[in-house]
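Hi R.,

Here are the chain sequences for the assembly we discussed:
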Amino acid sequence: MTQTRNNIAFVRTADAPLLPAPRNMTGVVGWMRENLFPTPLNALASVLIGGFLIWQIWGVIDWALVRGVFFGEDREACITPPREGVQPGACWAFIGAKFHQFIYGFYPFEERWRVDVLAVVFAGLLAALAVPRVPYKLYTGITFVFGLPILAEILLYGGTFGLAAVDTNKWGGLLLTMVVAVSGIVLSLPLGVLLALGRRSEMPIVRYFCIAFIEIWRGVPLITVLFMASIMLPLFLPQGMNTDKMLRIIIGVALFSSAYMAETVRGGLQAIPKGQYEAAKALGLGYWRMTLLIILPQALKIVIPGIVNTFISLFKDTTLVLVVGLFDFLGIIQAGAADQKWVSAETARSGYFVAALVYWAFCFSVSRYSIHMERRLATGHRR
Amino acid sequence: MANAEKKALKVSDEVVIDIEGMNKWYGQFQVLRDINLTVYRGERIVICGPSGSGKSTLIRCINRLEEHQKGRIVVDGIELSNDLKKVDEVRREVGMVFQHFNLFPHLTVLENCTLAPIWVRKTPKAEAEALAMKFLTRVKIPEQALKYPGQLSGGQQQRVAIARALCMNPRVMLFDEPTSALDPEMIKEVLEVMVDLAESGMTMICVTHEMAFARQVANRVIFMDQGQIVEQNTPEEFFTNPQSDRTKLFLSQILH
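And here is the predicted structure of the full complex:
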């Protein structure tokens, strides 16, 4: 080569060859060797943990499928051993028998189509919003935020258009969970954004109001809020102004989560460099245009994980409405499991298993979708 | 000098910016002292001075990214005050290019350029896009229109920032150290665009350390130190025959 020991001058005359990576760093075997069995100790740990997992998973399969009771009219099926010396497993017959109640609560049987219609409209709008290819996002969004609550009021509550009125104390199950959670989510996001902007406002009265609001609601447990909304508030309101309990609960939940949402969004606002504000101002954009066109799209994108976190915890916190006598999805399963007709060793366990599965499926889908959105919206640092 | 005459000819009597006895404080610390400056239409002014001398603060006062506490600033016949409407009116007519570009990362290059014309000037979208493409062509990057700022080099980003400001058809352009954050090989492409802009007759105020640029396009060079205008002159006089000791010291430090 041109390089010699005693001469520091060097001129490259030919490019060094481009070599392939030294060994195959991909492939299942390569991955396992690197991650599961790199040393004897790690290999032992992998075998032990793997064995434990297989044992546990088999336990669940055995309980749910092999020994599970799928058919039956009452508890007899779930306490009768399927074979000699075998304990009966999960009582799916109970889930099947109570399934409609888990979904609709005590909603009158002949009126349940109204819930179905609403569910279909909700799912359709949500899909139109969630799938990026579908056009008219703005109109869909407006329909979702303003049209859907009106439709829900007409369909679920009834009393107009010849629909029989169904009092909210008959609502329950997944229907109630969804109504509380979706209203809470749809209300808390815009409210939270406004509170976050207010907390950073240059106007002291707005700022102090927002700080006080956020800190008061954040400093109170949700159960307290629910008790206040359902029991205390009617005592303070003048006679005749007694609003619906469900409505009070929804507002309580929404205000409670909006305080958390505000702090999440504020985190995003603080991450936006000062230069973005200055560039927007220098172009002559006023406060609201600057906020809506430049600042919020960036800030909200940053805090998608935080927003989704708040959504998920709100969704699960709706189970707390149980303490004020509303039967949400979990509550109605619990109530069903106490039914004399179905009481058995496995009834409650099967019910809780279903509850856990449904809550997990909802939360996990939301989480996956949010990760998808984060990737799709990542323009800032793409090279 | 023929060159100087050519430069002088372009300058009109029309006052675009008039600053009178302007003072500014950050808390107790005075950053600008008794600033008096009149800018005529078509002028190319370069402001230089050591760091912390108040050059950036001065031009940021012109579109009220910073507030002044004493004195008057009149831009295009509008006096800057707490009246937000008037401030926005001024900002519409004053384009600004920042040291760190400050492009909007969530919008494409084209959207960066059309945003303000569409939302502030109420230009129809198609017209705004045509205008944006015209200026992107002028800064020599029309082919990048659909990319995001994060996909461009620093020099390209700064040229987009210039195009974005030009899309508002400003009467004045302010440049706040536009080449200071750039890698050396990218400075030239941005300066070329600025020279081209100056030759088209745009009124410009540039805070910059590019003394070659000052020599080539400026009709006036202003030297600031400790919040004051210490010296101003034509570039020829300023560089060959500086009067104040502080100017001499500064020039000796930057012109090796």
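The two ends of chain A are 37 Å apart (CA to CA). The mean pLDDT of chain A is 86.

Let me know if anything looks off.

Best,
T.
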